[in-house]
Write the structure tokens for this entry.
Amino acid sequence: MSITFPPLPILYAYIAQDIIYNKIHLFISGNTDGWRRALEKAGEEKEYTIILPGHGNPADRSVIKENLEYLDVVNKTLAASRSKAEYKAKLLAAYPAYGGTRLIDIYLDYYLKKDWAEK
């Protein structure tokens, strides 16, 4: 007796792991240039229509552009902020619907190194 299964449809899914987030604050631990390059490379993979982010729900390709824009906001906000509290407040105001707010606290407390003006 032979069992046959119907063929699975080809899913054009990009499994992004920690490179892409969907509506979750990105975990910033330093310079974002490498992350930007990885996102740009993912964006060049045109055959993928479904993006499976490492954090958040599956998405379409627009999530790559959203992540690049988020990194732009992070870089501008880091440059303009004089304290961790100011940085966090600006980021939360820019992305009020994003989850993962606790990630900001973690990376500000332990990973992101910056000479803040606050004493």
